[in-house]
Every structure is written in structure tokens, then in C-alpha cells.
Amino acid sequence: MRFLDWFLLLFIFAFTIPRSVEAQNQAGFISLDCGLVPENTTYVENTINITYKSDADYIDSGSVGKIKDAYTTQFQRQLWSLRSFPDGKRNCYNVNVTANSKYLIRGSFVYGNYDGLNQLPSFDLHIGPNKWSSVTIEGVANFSMTEIIHVVTQERLQVCLVKTGPTTPFISSLELRPLPNQSYVTETGSLTRFARVFFSTSSSVISLIVLLFFLAKIC
Ligand SMILES: *[C@@H]1O[C@H](CO)[C@@H](O)[C@H](O)[C@H]1NC(C)=O
Ligand SMILES: *[C@@H]1O[C@H](CO)[C@@H](O)[C@H](O)[C@H]1NC(C)=O
Ligand SMILES: *[C@@H]1O[C@H](CO)[C@@H](O)[C@H](O)[C@H]1NC(C)=O
Ligand SMILES: *[C@@H]1O[C@H](CO)[C@@H](O)[C@H](O)[C@H]1NC(C)=O
Ligand SMILES: *[C@@H]1O[C@H](CO)[C@@H](O)[C@H](O)[C@H]1NC(C)=O
Q1: Rounded-to-integer distance, Cα 28 and Cα 22, Å
Q2: Is residue 106 part of a domain?
């Protein structure tokens, strides 16, 4: 079959399978709102029904901060606070995971002029000793997200922010989602995200727009 046929098949499939996002099972999810205070706060971000908690149990270093009020309305709550790392070249989160299993790891970043310097940061992310990605913030109110699909071999995973220049690394949220062993099978290495298509539960309009977009790309 041609790619287009595959896509149409997928499209039909996405529409016919009954989905239950509302009763989403968050077992094994780790959803950290970095820099959230007080440290024992948890809440549900109700646009996505995900329960976030403070990152305090996962890291000893860094300072807590908050994006300027002017920017909060355009972002989900987990992006309002952040943790920044003015000290040290490398600062790491320690996360307990299930050894030999696959995770989607996602870092999200909104600068929001939290430090009042109006200076856009850039820095690196590492998983353990290996470089994962470089983050370059392109605007004060830009949202950036970096994702990787990674097989963890041990029960402990380190996600590190590494200073690469004069600006201070920071992170707004860090999320881990366990994936079935059989998904995204690769011979070696990790996968980075190229694109994600979300077929909405409620609005067929979004799916239709996505379809038209793909058709326009293909044809
Ligand atoms: C979140 O959960 C509530 C209650 O279960 C539900 O009514 C609502 O539609 C859900 N929202 C989303 C975006 O899934
Ligand atoms: C959070 O901690 C504060 C003080 O440390 C305490 O008074 C409060 O009851 C705690 N809240 C929860 C939900 O555990
Ligand atoms: C991770 O596991 C260690 C050792 O079992 C435990 O001491 C620590 O509290 C755990 N950390 C978190 C954040 O659950
Ligand atoms: C990021 O910010 C720059 C400068 O403010 C803007 O031109 C650009 O469109 C933004 N990019 C995204 C993806 O929002
Ligand atoms: C996934 O596969 C690995 C190796 O093939 C195995 O050790 C592990 O137990 C599997 N994990 C799950 C959750 O099935």
C-alpha cells in the first residue's frame, strides 16, 4: 500500500476505536511541576487531567522561580513555576524507574522572564552521562518541549541540566511515561520525536484539519 492508503486506514481506525481519555490511567506516570511550592502540593491540570506534583523530592539543588504573571494565562499550570540552576555546571534529577523498561521522557520550558533579566537561556540536557538535547529558548513567552524514548537499564535515572554558556539552565516540567516494551522497537539507541499527531476525543474538526494538512503535504 502507498503511504496515503496507510494514512487513511490509520485515520479511520482513530475515529472508530472508542477511547476513554477521561478515565486515563496514570499508573507509573511521573509528572513533576518543577519549582512548585509548597513542596507537598499536588494538583490536577484540568485541561489534560494529569496530576502534577512538586519536583522537590527528586532534586537537591537549584532555585525555585515563577514566570511573570503576564504570561501565565497562555500556559498550563505546570509551566508557571520552574527551577533554575545558577550554581554548578551540571545539576541532576534522580528519578526512580522500572529497570529494563521503556519510557517517554519529556522536558518542557517556558522562560517567561522569571529572573527579570530578559535574557534568553540556552543549555544542554543529559540523560546520565550522555547528551540528550540542546535547549535554546527563542522568545520570552515561547514554549519548548524536548522528548525522547529511552530504555532505562537501571532503577535510577538521572536527567541533568548542563550549563553551556553564560545563561542559567532552567526547567518548567519534567514528565516520564512508561511505554509498553513492544512499542517503538529499535535495534539500539533512543528515539527522538519528529512529530506527534493527536486525534482529539471531542472534536472531529481537529482530526480533519490534520488529515487535510497531511493530504496537502503528500499530494
Ligand atoms: C477530565 O475529567 C473529568 C472528570 O472525570 C471529565 O469530566 C473531563 O471531561 C476530563 N477532561 C479531559 C480534558 O479529559
Ligand atoms: C504541607 O506542608 C505543610 C507544612 O509543611 C503542612 O502544614 C500541610 O498540612 C501539608 N499539606 C499536605 C497536603 O500534606
Ligand atoms: C527512590 O528510591 C530510593 C531507594 O529505594 C528511596 O530512598 C527514595 O526515597 C526514592 N525516591 C523517590 C522520589 O521516590
Ligand atoms: C518564538 O519567539 C520568537 C521571537 O519572539 C517568535 O518569532 C517565534 O515565532 C516563536 N516561535 C514559536 C514556535 O512560538
Ligand atoms: C521488557 O523487555 C526486557 C528485555 O527484553 C525484559 O527484561 C523486561 O522484563 C521487559 N519489561 C516488561 C515490563 O515487560
Answers
A1: 17
A2: yes
Q: Look at the chain and report how many structural domains it folds into.
A: 1
Return the ligand 1 atom nearest residue 49 CA.
1
CB 179 within 8 A of CB 102: yes
pLDDT digits 0-9 by tens, 83-94 = 999 999 999 999
CATH of residue 75's domain is: 2.60.120.260
Distant-in-sequence, close-in-space partners of 61: CB < 8 Å, separation ≥ 6: 85, 87, 88, 91
Residue range(s) defining the domain that contains residue 157 = 26-200
Please give the number of the atom of ligand 3 that sits closest to the Cα of 57: 13
Nearest CA to ligand 2 atom 9: 40
Task: Name the amino acid, one letter, at 4.
Answer: L
Q: Structure pTM?
A: 0.78
In a domain, 6, yes or no: no
